[in-house]
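Page 47, continued from p. 46.
Same chain as before, 436 aa.
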Amino acid sequence: MGLWSWFFPSPADRVRKAGVYASKQKWAQARDELMGLEEPEAVALMERVELELAKANLAEAVAWGNAGDEIRVQMHLELAERFRHGQLGEELQQVRRTLRELRAERKSEEQRKLEEKQRQLVDYAPPEGFPQGPRALDGLLPDDLDPDVADEVAARLGLVVEAYPPHLRDQLGALGPVFAQAILEMDEGRPEDAYPLLLSLPDTAPLVWWERARAAAALGHPKDAGNALREFARHAGGHMRIGNAHTGVLLAQYHAESGEVRTAIRVLRAIAAEGGEEGDFFLAQLLEADNELAEADQILTRLARKYPKQREIHKVLARVRVRGGERRAAILALEAANAQTCDTPGKCGYTPPDPEVLLTLATLYLEEGEVKRGLELAGELPPSGAQTWEAAYLGALVARAEGRPDAEEIAASVRAQTPQVGPQAARLATFLPTGA
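Result:
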C-alpha cells in the first residue's frame, strides 16, 4: 500500500483491512471500515460482521439484565435487532425469555428482602450486653425525634451498629445524629447523600472512616474507599472483621479494582502472616493474575483439603495448574470438584453437575488422549444455547475422537473463529492441528 493509498484507501483496501479486524474478532472496527461500501464483497462481509455484533449485543443484554440495568438492556437489544439481518430469531427469543426470568427473580428477591427487613425490624432484639430501647443509642437519636418513629429508627440503626466491634461502639454517642442520618441514608441506598454527611464528621473516628469507605465503594470510587480503609485501620489499631466483612480483605479488593494488584497482594499476605485466612482464596486468584502460580497452587491446595466441597476452589486450582503445565494435577483437581455432584434431590444435599467442570475436564482428557473418559464426560454436558469457543473446540475434539467424517470440517470452523495468536491458537496447533 503506497503513501497515497494510506491516506485515501481504495474500497478493496478497506475490505481487506476490515477482514483483518474480523479475523481478530474486532467487529466494531471492521464495521466502521466497511461503512458506505457497496461492493458485493463488502456487503457480504458487513452482514457477517453485523451478525456477530448482534450476538455480542444479545450477550451484553443478558449481562446487564443480571446487573438489573434495564436501560442498557434495552439499548443492547435495539442494537441486536438492528444488526441481526432477520437472523438469530431463536437466540433473540431465548434472550428475551431469560430477561423476563431475571426480572421475575429480581422482583421476587426484592420482595423477599423487603419482607425480611420488615421482619427484622419487628423482631429486633439487641444482643446481650447491648443497651435496650430507643435510648440505647443515646447521642445518635435526635432529642426531638417523634416517639411514633423512635422505635423503628432505633431498630434500623441497631441492625447496623451491632455489627461494629464492641470496643468501637463506645464512640457512637459522640458522633451524634449526623452519623445516624448517614447510616440511614446508606441503609436506604443513597450513598450520594450519606457521603457528604460523613465528610462533616471528625477524621479521628474509626467508624466514620469505615462508613466513608462503604459509601465511596457504593459510589464506584474504589481508590477513595481504599484510602478510607487505611485510615480506619490506623485509627482503630488494625484491620478487623465487621459483620460479614473483613476490612483488610476489602482494602485488597479496592486496590485490585483500581489496578493495583501487587499492593492488594501485599495486603492479603500481611493478613495471612497474622494467621488470618479470610483473604486466602482472593489472594490465590490475584497471584494467578500476577503469574505467581506456585504460591497460588500452594494456597489453593491447602484450601481444597480444608473445604473439599467448595467446587470453586478446585476449579481455580485446576486453572492454575493448567497454566503452570501441570495438566495431570489439574485433572485430579477437577475430578475432585466433579465428585461433589449429587443429582438426586433430597438424597445427599442436591448438588447438580457443574457444566464448566464437565467441559474443562472432558477437554483435558481428550487433549491428553484419554478418549473413553473424555467422551463419557462430554456426553454428560447439558445442552446449552450459548456456543462459546470452548464448547466449539470441545465439539471438534469429540468429532475427531469419534472418527466422524465431518471432523475436519468442524475443526476448520473452529479455526475460522479463533484469533491467529494467543492461547486458543496455541491449543489448536497442539491438539487439533490441520490435517490431523
